[in-house]
Automatic annotation (TrEMBL):
SMART domains: Cutinase. Keywords: Disulfide bond, Hydrolase, Signal. This is Cutinase. InterPro entries: AB_hydrolase_fold, Cutinase/axe. The lineage of its organism: Eukaryota, Fungi, Dikarya, Ascomycota, Pezizomycotina. It comes from the Eukaryota. One of its GO terms (molecular function) is carboxylic ester hydrolase activity. It holds the Pfam family Cutinase. Residues 1-25 form the signal peptide.
Amino acid sequence: MRTILGIIPVTAVFLILLSTRLVFTNQHPIPAPQEQPATATAPCPAITIISARGTTEDPGEGRLTTIASDLANGHENRERIPLDYPADLFPYSVSLFKGIKALNGLLNMSVTSCPEAKIVLLGYSQGAHVIGNTLCGGAFAEQGIDLRIGDKVTAIIFMADPRHVPGKSFNVGSSTRSGLFPRPDSEGCDHYASRMQSYCDSGDPVCDSGFVQEVHRAVVEKYRADAVAFVNRLLS
């Protein structure tokens, strides 16, 4: 079993930054997937919950399992989909690319097959990076996904987003600093502000450029109830 680090150690930050230079200087957009019609044997869910786990977490929902479970338990006719991507620390840029490609395809397929389904996106750490770039733009995503797809997303939760910037209306937590890879205005997520909450606390090494590893590990459970309540309001 792979070790769940839960944080990116300070000693690894330089290597990550070096790795991700390729991300921000070689932005090759991913191709749009072919539309896939819904099958008669697969009824559409009312709610689709997609979770993108954090760096080095085992395949599945990772720390986001508790939030996904709380949401699923409160609604009928829902499905939970863990995003199938590496969530690797090295090479981070390759993992990010594969995550964006996977989410782009999944969103296109979901919207095409089940256009009435409400989509909830949950992202922790690197998973938030994947979701943010897919929706809002950045490396491997140009200006972000087509708004005809993006506007089908009902709710978005970021936990410890590496691209966090202070001062946004959707921010929650005590953070006052930018993350490892702050998102510029040209790749901003303001279009989704009313549907998004981004949680980050002071000292987090990933979203606040701090040095307190436990802050990063604890963010999901700390804000679990608040995130679930926010999503449920949007689903109601």
